[in-house]
Specification:
The protein is an alpha+beta fold. The protein has 2 domains: 17-61; 72-149, ACT domain (Alpha-Beta Plaits, 2-Layer Sandwich), CATH 3.30.70. The chain is 36% helix and 23% strand. It is built from 6 helices and 4 strands, in the order ααααβαββαβ. Helix 1 crosses helix 2. The longest helix has 15 residues, at 20-34. The radius of gyration is 19 Å and the shape is elongated.
Length: 150
C-alpha cells in the first residue's frame, strides 16, 4: 500500500458490507487503546486476525468518530417542547467535552421543535456515537442524526 497518496479519497461505508477484517482491525485498535492488553500479538489473537492483516490495514481503517476528531459536526434533533430538554442535551454534549459553537432551535410546531447544534470535536472524551446514544435516552428526544461534518 505504500505511503498515503496526497489524493486520498475517504468513504463513509456501513461496516455490514465490508469484509470482516476491517471491523476486526478496529476491534484490535480499541483493545490496545483501552490498555488492558498492550501487545499487538495478544490483541490480534483475541480478535482472530493475523498480525500482518492488522499492520496492513491499521493506518487506513478508522471508526467514524475517530475521523471526526478536530472537526466541526452538525447535530440535528427533533425534540418535544418541554422545559429543560435543551439543557439536558447540552449537558450530554458538555459531558463528552465537545465544544458547542452554535445552537439553533426553531419555534415548536405541534409540540415538536427542530434543534441544530454544531460542535467542535477536538477535545472530546467520548465517541460521537456514544454521546448521541446518551442523548437519545433523554425523555422527549424524538429523533437525532449527524447532519454534516466539515
Amino acid at each position: 500500500m505504500g505511503d498515503m497518496e496526497k489524493n486520498t479519497t475517504y468513504l463513509l461505508v456501513d461496516v455490514a458490507v465490508l469484509p470482516e477484517v476491517f471491523s476486526k482491525v478496529i476491534e484490535v485498535k480499541k483493545i490496545l487503546s483501552k490498555g488492558k492488553i498492550k501487545a499487538v500479538n495478544e490483541a490480534v489473537k483475541e480478535v482472530g486476525i493475523s498480525r500482518s492483516a492488522y499492520y496492513k490495514y491499521k493506518d487506513y481503517v478508522f471508526p467514524f468518530y475517530e475521523t471526526s476528531r478536530g472537526k466541526v459536526i452538525t447535530l440535528f434533533f427533533v425534540v418535544e417542547d418541554f422545559a429543560g430538554i435543551l439543557s439536558s442535551i447540552i449537558n450530554q454534549i458538555a459531558a463528552a467535552k465537545a465544544n458547542i459553537l452554535t445552537i439553533n432551535q426553531n419555534i415548536p410546531i405541534n409540540g415538536l421543535a427542530d434543534v441544530t447544534i454544531s460542535v467542535e470535536t477536538q477535545g472530546m472524551v467520548k465517541d460521537i456515537k456514544d454521546m448521541m446514544d446518551e442523548i437519545s435516552k433523554i425523555e422527549g428526544v424524538r429523533r437525532q442524526e449527524i447532519l454534516a461534518r466539515e
